[in-house]
Amino acid sequence: MVDFRETDFFSDGEIAQDLPSYLASLRSACPVMQEKFQNVFMVTGYDEAVEVYNQQGEVFSSAVAVTGPLPPLPFTPNGDVAAQLAEHRHEMPWTDHLATFDGTHHTQHRALLQALLTHKRLKANEDYVGGLVIRLVDGLIDRGGCEITKDFAHALSTLVIADLLGVPEEDRPALLEAMGPDPTQLGGDEGFKVGADPLLHLHARFLGYLTERLDNPRDDMLTDLVQAKFKDGGDPGLHVKAQLACFLFGAGQDTSARLVAFAFRTLGDMPEVQAKLRSEPHRIPEFIEEVLRTQPPVKTMSRLAIRDGVVGGVDIPAGSIVTVCSGGANRDPRRFADPDTFDYDRPGVRDHIAFSRGSHGCIGAPLARMEVRVALEQFLSRTSDIRIAEAQHGPADARRYAYEPTYMLHGLQALHVEWDKT
């Protein structure tokens, strides 16, 4: 087990390789504990995490949601932290994107996107997902196995969100290339894309799509977005709408790809669970929820205290950064009985906080759940057994997995699986 007192969560990639043990150690000492390297208050308890999310906007700002303490704040907190943040926000990474917005600014822009994610559009996207999964599986099934993250999950999640938005089919392969590998985050500026708009490499492309929709509207989400207005009738403008499209595209493909990989790892590592799920495929949604609880794709969400607050009885001074560790909260034994056991029959199987909570809850959660469900339905119906490839990951009693060395995102670097066709 990692000695949490002597390890910097935000710079030591080894923690990612033994994350549940690290978070359990932290939580057993105190579910709200200030670590000594970055002076961040680490929240690993379930009730305490919900406390943080319930105080968003009032006590805690989302300005550092993505980056946490790295890079450091562009100001030294002193006095009116809310005023200091307002003055310096433009200097902070990701400040142009929805995840870091606060208050009315966040409410307006989130509502703009939320209004576009209609049941009708998601249903039409599900029809596309079904056909896409069949095509992807057709290309893989006779191989008897693959590296699931590269050969299936990344392509699935990227093409699904591209279809939902209305990206022309001929442009989708280029978008797969444009996304590239995920940043490591570790190492501050060197390891993580920083700046007000880290998705700038996508901005011109989506701005072009929106501009084209002005003259040639279509039945797609990009057309709806370019025509959308705030509830008060105001129009945020094309550049802001392009940023929203970039954010939805980037976030939409990222979380889903990680979730797909963890779902397959669970099936391969737990043959008894796989057999049970094959006998009751209608329970795939509950299975996905338990995957989310035990292996949340987003490892942390951070908040900046803009005024003095209290979480779990611990005083949080204004200017402090609080980091909610979803993997710790989701395995809190005070909330989940036998938390390290995978059990999709457990009561409250959807009570996890893998998709955050409150005003900043993941806007794309229904999409992620849907595409993973469709993928599992197809794979389970076309195979009789899915296994972890021992040549790459070792035998069942001595598995070897490598995790992405990040402090925000939780994902496998690779997952090699094998299967028997039906």
List keywords for this structure.
Cytochrome p450; five-stranded mixed β-sheet; 45% helix
Structure commentary:
- The chain is α+β, with helices and mostly antiparallel strands and 422 residues long.
- It has one domain (4-421): Orthogonal Bundle (Cytochrome p450), CATH 1.10.630.10.
- The protein is built from 15 helices and 10 strands.
- The chain has helices at residues 19-29, 46-54, 81-88, 103-114, 119-140, 148-165, 172-179, 200-215, 221-227, 238-269, 271-279, 284-294, 326-329, 365-382, 390-393, and strands spanning 32-34, 41-43, 60-61, 145-147, 300-305, 309-311, 314-316, 321-325, 383-388, 416-421.
- Strands 1-2-8-5-3 form a 5-stranded mixed β-sheet, with helices on both faces. A 3-stranded antiparallel β-sheet has the order 4-10-9.
- A hairpin with a 6-residue loop joins strand 1 (32-34) and strand 2 (41-43).
- Helix 5 (119-140) runs antiparallel to helix 6 and helix 5 packs parallel to helix 14.
- The model is unreliable at 188-194 (pLDDT under 50).
Helices and strands in order:
Elements: H1 19-29, E1 32-34, E2 41-43, H2 46-54, E3 60-61, H3 81-88, H4 103-114, H5 119-140, E4 145-147, H6 148-165, H7 172-179, H8 200-215, H9 221-227, H10 238-269, H11 271-279, H12 284-294, E5 300-305, E6 309-311, E7 314-316, E8 321-325, H13 326-329, H14 365-382, E9 383-388, H15 390-393, E10 416-421
Helix pairs in contact: 5-6, 5-14, 6-7, 6-10, 8-9, 8-10, 10-12, 10-14, 12-14
